[in-house]
Write a structure and sequence with these properties.
This protein has about 240 residues and is an alpha/beta fold. Helix content is about 35%, strand content about 15%. Bound molecules: zinc ion (ZN) (2 copies).
């Protein structure tokens, strides 16, 4: 069946539209131009770090900022081709990016998997969800759950009130704006109790949104919280 589908719809490169040999989504010409994170990276936010190390390292930003989660991973840097892919998934109706993106996320996130772990996406407020028609983080969460063979729940977390856009805000303003805005859905409180949680989002900038989500899970009595991000915004040097 898979072969038949591939004969009729041969896989296309997500970047250039050319044919690709695998279902990894990016052709061999575009692969080097896509900022995949490999090698040493921050154990909390996934940002790439220089050099090599045989122990877990933390970036300067995570040393300065309290991260309520235990470990985090990111597949891409949010720049160049990485940024274009994320924007395509988020605003460009390119839902086809979610499955290959989840494969890239699975590659860096697999070592965080624990028994009984559940994947939950960062929620959109209902109005934004209706306007955009889909939640890009939920698409990633679903596909990542399949890759990692874990349970997932699309509506475990909620934003009861609309959150003002974080675009253009300073990091302090971002934390002020989003703290306390994400909660565990009342119907899902039992589902998260005592279970390790893997929070999925498309982009991490300051980490304020992920922190609000992680705090909501922990306040509800979840087990340890981990995060997996498609793209990490690199800090200004
Ligand atoms: Zn290509
Ligand atoms: Zn970090």
């Amino acid at each position: 069946m898979q072969t038949l589908v591939q004969m009729i719809y041969p896989p296309r490169c997500l970047s250039c539209g050319g044919l690709v040999e695998t279902d990894f989504g990016i052709c061999s010409a575009c692969w080097p131009k896509t900022p995949f994170i490999s090698g040493l990276s921050c154990d909390l936010c996934g940002t790439p770090l220089p050099g090599q190390s045989d122990r877990a390292e933390i970036c300067d930003e995570c040393l300065k900022t309290e991260r309520p989660w235990t470990k985090g991973r990111a597949a891409l840097e949010y720049k160049d081709q990485g940024r274009r892919l994320v924007l395509g998934l988020k605003h460009g109706d390119r839902q086809d990016i979610a499955k290959p993106a989840a494969k890239w996320m699975a590659r860096v996130t697999r070592d965080l998997v624990q028994e009984d772990m559940i994947i939950v996406p960062i929620p959109l407020h209902l109005h934004r969800h209706l306007a955009r028609r889909y939640n890009q983080s939920a698409l990633l969460a679903e596909a990542l759950a399949e890759e990692l063979d874990l349970d997932w729940c699309p509506d475990a977390l909620q934003r009861p009130k609309p959150t003002p856009s974080l675009d253009g805000k300073s990091r302090e303003e971002r934390f002020e704006t989003v703290t306390g805005r994400i909660t565990v859905s009342p119907d899902r409180e039992e589902l998260l109790k005592n279970r390790p949680v893997l929070i999925v989002d498309d982009v991490m900038t300051s980490g304020a949104t992920l922190a609000a989500a992680a705090e909501a899970c922990l306040a509800n009595g979840s087990g340890q919280v981990f995060v997996s991000i498609l793209a990490r915004v690199a800090k200004d040097p």
